[in-house]
Every structure is written in structure tokens, then in C-alpha cells.
Amino acid sequence: MIKICQRCGKEYPPASNRQKYCADCRPAVTQEYNRQYYLRNSEEIIARVAQYKENNRDTYDAYQREYSKKYRAEHKDTIRQYKKQWLANNPDKERVYCERAKERYHKKRRLKKLEAKKLRLIAKMQANAAKRQTKQIRRKELYQGDSFWDNNLNAFAQRM
Ligand SMILES: [Zn+2]
């Protein structure tokens, strides 16, 4: 049996009775069907995706971060080219753009300095705690050691 494709009008041998389109038209028909489905249900689909994101915030954020990192690394030249082009097309915004870049740079540096300061403080506190502990242990040994009481009792006895 031969059928006529409802999309392109070509004759084709159908694989089943219900088939309406030839093999060449099938992918385009499916794509169009999916597009129509999305258009009919876009609100629900968008809401579902948003809900999914909300339920998996951490996983999603990590994925997003990883993805953009990879993308930036793989498209370094394209991004640089795009920025250059954008600046050429928006000469009036160049100043703002440069200032923002400067701000970002200084912010990063400030954060780095703060982080270093924090690490130094932590190291200092740890060193102090260790010193205090050593002192405490030494004092404990001093007061609990037999020699301490012996010496003091002897001294006390001599004074009597
Ligand atoms: Zn066809």
C-alpha cells in the first residue's frame, strides 16, 4: 500500500495504518508538535521549572556556577570580542563600564586583604591559645608536683 504525505504530498510506504507523514517530514512534524505543545502549556511548564529550581536550589546553583565557569573558559575569545564590540557600539557607556570594572577590581582586592587579615588573626588567636595552654599545664605541674609541696613545707618548717 502507498500513502500520500499530508505535509509534502509525496507518496510513501507507511509503516503503520495511522501514519500520516513520510519519513522525511516526521522530524519537522514532531518539532512543530512539541512547539505547539509548549505554546499551549508554557505557563504550566515555566511554573514547574521554577518550582523544580526552588526545590533544588543548592544543586541548581552549583550546576549553574559550574556551567558558566566552563562556558567562560571555553569562550574566552568570543566573550572578549563581544565586550569589545559592545563597547564600540556604546561609546557613551564606556566610562560607566570602566568604572564598574574598576569597582569590581577594588572590591576583589579589598576582599582578598580582609581574608588575609582574618587568617592572620585566626593564626594569632591559635598561637595565643596554645601559649595559654602551655602556661596552664606548667602551672598545674608546678602546683601538683611533689617537689613543690616538699620544698614549701621544708621552707615553712625551717621558718617555724
Ligand atoms: Zn512528507
Describe the structure concisely.
With 160 residues, the chain is mainly alpha-helical. 79% of the residues lie in helices and 2% in strands. It has a domain at 1-53.
What topology does this entry show?
Blueprint: E1 3-4, E2 11-12, H1 26-55, H2 57-74, H3 76-89, H4 94-144, H5 146-159
Antiparallel strand pairs: 1-2
The structure holds zinc ion.
Residues 5, 7-8, 10, 21-22, 24-25 line the site of zinc ion.
Mean pLDDT: 90
Shape: elongated
Estimated helix fraction:
over 70%
Share in β-strands: under 5%
Chain oligomer state: single chain
Rg measurement, Å: 38 Å
Ligand list: zinc ion
Q: Which strand order spans the largest sheet, edge to edge or round the barrel?
A: 1-2
Number of helices: 5
Which consecutive residue ranges, at least 5 long each, have pLDDT under 50? none
Give the biggest sheet.
2 strands, antiparallel
Structural class: mainly alpha
Give the SSE order as H and E letters.
EEHHHHH
Distance between the termini: 130 Å
Quantity of strands, as a count: 2
